[in-house]
Write a structure and sequence with these properties.
Blueprint lengths: L8 E2 L8 E11 L5 E11 L8 E4 L4 E7 L2 E3 L2 E3 L2 E4 L6 E9 L9 E5 L2 E5 L19 E8 L4 E4 L2 E6 L2 E10 L6 E4 L2 E8 L5 E8 L8 H18 L7 E7 L6 E2 L4 E5 L12 H16 L8 E2 L5 H19 L2 H20 L11 E2 L8 H18 L1 H15 L3 E2 L1 H12 L8 H4 L5 E9 L2 E9 L14 E8 L5 E10 L3 E6 L7 E4 L8 E3 L4 H10 L3 H22 L5 H12 L5 H8 L4 H10 L6 H18 L3 H8 L10 H21 L2 H9 L3 H13 L4 H11 L3 H13 L3 H12 L9 H13 L1 H4 L5 H14 L3 H7 L11 H15 L6 H11 L1
Helix pairs in contact: 1-2, 2-3, 3-4, 3-5, 4-5, 5-6, 6-7, 9-10, 9-11, 10-14, 12-16, 13-14, 14-16, 15-16, 16-18, 17-18, 18-20, 19-20, 20-21, 20-22, 24-25, 24-26, 25-27, 26-27
Bound molecules: zinc ion.
The site of zinc ion (ZN) has 4 residues, from helix 3.
């Protein structure tokens, strides 16, 4: 049953639940179409809550019976749950419900994936398993008995007992229902072990389908590295006897941090050199770390309500990025994070879906697992750390764990910890959590008598529901170079708090060149009028790797802008300046590979739009092509040299050193393909013995229009590997020419192996279509139409994944009237679908408002 009219939930309406749960006993009798869930729950009145009806969440449940203290009761049932008269003191609540995991295509609650039972309860999936106060501030210990004939049966906590056809688990740590998990199936484990800092032995397992055992070793090493890192850097030790990870093929998101039983999208844990790219390996390492780190930031300290989602997600993303920086290159990680932030969070924050890091209302919480909550949430923590310093940050975190262990906490709690640990007033800083939108920071410079003055202005454009903005606290990291390229003022963090503010540097012997917003010290748009010459100077001399990269990126943006708006030619001065960096063998190849990438076409569209010019996706695409061709031609002798210099002859390893070389070599290969039509790419494809080299070569062949043989060979080789075939589906749409993107995507949807109910496969095709900027925005509207049709179809089966993908329309008001009308019509068509889910309905409503 669906909601007739979706309700809006407000942060300001928060009230505690009227009862506390002492403990939960569940018995789950598994059967694909008729699983029985028996619950026994001890409730007692909550002395800190206002009087209220006894209401338990429950959706799509068949109630078999309910009892209070052993006496049968008849609750009032609604589509959202049940209401019942209850005694005024403590009581034992018992119910039995029936559910059908085999029919659950939404992948929320208990469902089946390839014959295996699994659960997903965040955010509000537990209510599809049994009646319960399904809210994060109700925490309880769980005892779970699983009955069924599958060989493996897992739940949270520690195993306590088992026998023929049953197993019991007990989780001693009180937790909210969203961290509940159950897995049962024919699974095999890759075992491991870890000794914690206090000497406790922990059993580790990665559980997979038979046949995937060979793809677990890397994940296991990443898990152990994460456990060590959290002990060394945050002093956090693991707290159960066993830690299980399970790989599941059908999963809406990347992975889930259920207590002691993390469940992963198989694409985020299974890895082998033959089937996974270097980027896959790095992502797997980061996600394993992320979910493991949640054990403290999320599980031991959870969120009071879903508005506080960034409390656990922003912090955990921040922690996993610190981990990756320590495991690999901090500079490369920072640049990659900013690329990602600009590609995903900036468009969100600058369009109709803009919302604060801590939203104040929602209809469907699933729609707020966003780049703003996660990535901007992590940026906010990075700023906090920059402002208070590393030592004070460590002190504040210790206090956070000490004060709030076992709590369901809020952002106010989090900030108070920093205030108490540092003596700082964070009232103004709090705006980073409540104000949406990306601040624009402009700067002017003045030099006289040895004094250099930087004057900054900040302004945040209006966003939905927030027409007027107040100034925010901006940590602006600045360094000064003198004209011969030496650094005269090392990185200094300026703390801007006003709308307009000046900072002075004295005692300089000549006008310096300023390197501003080093390390991207605040998530803002920096508007800076500097000459191309000064940017080339920073590209050559800046000691800050991020700003070196940014100087080049800026030059590339400027060049593409001029090409699109004035018909200018490629900026050969930039290409030559960049060549010096690319040739520099002392620089990390991974860094050089990042330097070779152009700004994305979507980023350019945003830049044009911000300057009052309507972006033409075809013109942007053409300019990028012309510029790439010019780079290739100008470097025609350099490219083969670099390909030779980056060749890896050692046995494959996904480490930073080797993967950096391959990244540079493959960036070069894509330029080389423009000169030889795919000859070098074909040779690389034929010789490849790992997925990184094979897939990069295939990508080049597709861009060159020379892919037929390679595509067929790839399919023949990998047709039985679902995860590799996802790459095959995705690449054809992402790398093809704009005019063939939508037709190819459509043709792929007609294949029998386009298993669209699998979120990975759906995203492989439809997500890639949206990534092909000029292809998605084809003038005839074919890209929009295809996507809308499929979103309508998917909404009936999996609203969460359908709703997430609606965000590809979030930039629709940027484009010309013709495209706008086409996109609006598709959004309206989606909105008009009968029985539209609450998830998609909220997204489309916000997009159209
Ligand atoms: Zn997370």
């Amino acid at each position: 049953m669906k909601d007739a009219s979706p309700q809006t939930i407000y942060l300001s309406d928060y009230t505690p639940f009227g009862w506390q749960v002492a403990d939960v006993h569940l018995t789950v009798k598994l059967a694909p179409k008729a699983t029985r869930v028996v619950s026994r729950i001890h409730f007692q009145p909550n002395p800190n809550a206002p009087a209220q009806d006894f209401f338990l969440h429950g959706e799509e449940l068949k109630l078999i019976h309910a009892a209070i203290d052993g006496t049968e009761v008849t609750p009032e049932l609604t589509p959202q749950g049940l209401r019942c008269d209850v005694p005024s003191g403590p009581f034992l609540w018992e119910t039995e419900v029936e559910i059908a995991p085999a029919e659950n295509t939404a992948l929320e609650g208990l469902y089946m994936s390839n014959g295996m039972y699994c659960t997903q309860c965040e955010a509000e999936g537990f209510r599809k398993i049994t009646y319960y106060p399904d809210r994060p501030d109700v925490m309880a210990t769980f005892t779970v008995r699983i009955e069924g004939d599958t060989p493996v049966k897992l739940s949270n906590g520690n195993p306590t007992d088992s026998g023929e056809g049953w197993a019991e688990w007990h989780d001693p740590w009180p937790k909210p229902a969203y961290l509940f998990a159950l897995v049962a199936g024919d699974l095999v484990n890759h075992p491991g072990a870890f000794t914690t800092m206090s000497g406790k032995e922990v059993e580790l397992n990665i559980w997979v389908r038979p046949g995937d055992e060979g793809k677990c070793a890397f994940g296991m090493e990443a898990l152990k590295a994460s456990m060590t890192w959290d002990e060394e850097v945050y002093g956090r030790e693991y707290d159960l006897d066993i830690f299980n990870i399970v790989a599941v093929d059908d999963f809406n998101m990347g992975a889930m941090e259920n207590k002691g039983l993390n469940i992963f999208n198989s694409s985020c844990v299974l890895a082998s050199p033959e089937t996974s790219t270097d980027a896959n390996f790095e992502r797997i390492e980061a996600i394993i770390a992320h979910e493991y780190f949640h054990n403290w930031t999320g599980n031991r300290i959870t969120c009071r309500d879903w508005f506080q989602l960034c409390l656990k997600e922003g912090l955990t993303v921040y922690r996993d990025s610190q981990f990756t920086s320590d495991m690999r290159s901090a500079e490369v990680k920072r640049i990659s994070d900013v690329i990602d932030l600009r590609a995903r969070q900036f468009p969100e924050d600058q369009g109709p879906l803009s919302h604060p890091v801590r939203p104040e209302s929602f209809q469907e919480i699933n729609n707020f697992y966003t780049a703003t909550v996660y990535e901007k949430g992590a940026e906010v923590i990075g700023m906090l750390k920059r402002l208070v310093g590393d030592e004070a940050y460590a002190k504040a975190l210790d206090l956070y764990f000490e004060r709030h262990d076992g709590d369901a906490a809020t952002i106010e709690d989090w900030l108070r910890v920093f205030e108490d640990a540092t003596g700082r007033d964070l009232t103004q800083f709090q705006r980073w959590y409540s104000q949406s939108g990306t601040p624009h920071l402009s700067v002017s410079e003045d030099y006289a008598d040895g004094t250099f003055t930087l004057t900054f202005k900040q302004e945040t454009p209006p966003t939905p529901g927030q027409p007027d903005k107040a100034p925010q606290v901006l940590p602006i990291a600045v360094g000064l170079l003198n004209p011969n390229g030496d650094e005269v003022v090392p990185t200094t963090v300026l703390e801007m708090t006003d709308a307009e503010q000046s900072f002075r540097f004295e005692g300089l012997s000549a006008k310096p060149v300023a390197s501003i917003l080093r390390g991207f010290s605040a998530p803002v748009v920096l508007d800076r009028e500097t000459s191309a010459e000064e940017k080339r100077f920073l590209l050559a001399h800046d000691t800050d790797a991020f700003n070196r990269w940014e100087a080049s990126r800026d030059l590339a943006r400027g060049c593409l802008f001029d090409m699109v708006t004035e018909g200018a030619g490629p900026d050969t001065a930039w290409i030559d300046a960049l060549e010096q960096v690319i040739r520099d063998g002392d620089l990390d190849p991974a860094f050089r590979a990042l330097m070779l990438a152009l700004p994305t076409q979507s980023e350019l569209a945003q830049m044009l739009h911000a300057k009052g010019i309507t972006p033409d996706p075809d013109a942007i695409h053409a300019a990028a092509e012309t510029l790439r061709n010019a780079m290739a031609e100008r470097w025609s002798s350099l490219l083969p040299e670099l390909m030779a210099a980056t060749r890896v002859t050692d046995r494959y390893s996904p480490d930073a050193k080797q993967s950096g070389k391959r990244a540079l070599g493959n960036a070069v290969l894509s330029l080389q393909t423009r000169l030889d039509g795919g000859k070098a790419a074909q040779a690389q494809f034929d010789a490849a013995d790992n997925m990184t080299m094979q897939l990069s070569a295939l990508s080049c062949l597709i861009s060159a229009g020379a892919e037929d043989a390679a595509l067929a060979a790839f399919e023949q080789q990998w047709k039985d590997d679902r995860l590799v075939m996802d790459k095959w589906f995705a690449l054809q749409v992402a790398a093809t020419k704009p005019e063939t993107a939508a037709p190819r995507a459509e043709a792929l949807t007609k294949r029998p192996d386009f298993d669209w109910k699998n979120p990975n496969r759906f995203r492989a095709v439809m997500g890639s279509l949206a990534m092909n900027h000029a292809g998605f925005h084809a003038k005839d509207g074919s890209g929009y139409r295809l996507l809308a049709e499929w979103l309508i179809k998917l909404d009936g089966k999996n609203p969460q994944t359908a709703a997430r993908m609606c965000s590809v329309f979030q930039t629709w008001t940027r484009y010309d009237a013709g495209r706008q009308a086409l996109m609006k019509a598709e959004l309206e068509r989606i909105a008009a679908k009968p029985d539209l889910s609450r998830d998609v309905s909220e997204m489309v409503g916000r997009l159209l408002s």
